[in-house]
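Project standup — Tuesday

K.O.: blocked on the structure for the chain from last sprint. Re-posting the sequence here as requested.
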Amino acid sequence: MTEINTLDEQTQTELEAAAFRTLVEHLRSRTDVQNIDLMNLAGFCRNCLSKYYVAAGAERDLELSYEDARERVYGMPYKEWKAQYQTEATAEQAAQYKATHG
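H.V.: unblocked you, prediction finished:
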């Protein structure tokens, strides 16, 4: 078995990319999990992943639009995902978000 600290850079990048794709696919399949839930529990959400994607492109002098990045993460245009799956935050969710991200 190969130890993770002995991986070459290309293999490490490929594994990280595969893990990212798996995370995105998981989030696409869990439309019941709202972004506010993710923010309250983990401190990041689908929109954050989209911003990370844009930032990674900028580090490589690639100009990527936030909306295109969100479509990659959500698997559809954000407006469409929001209409189909997003629910109104409860008072408890909003209070928890304000308390932790205020």
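K.O.: great, moving the ticket to review. The longest helix spans residues 9-29. The radius of gyration is 16 Å.
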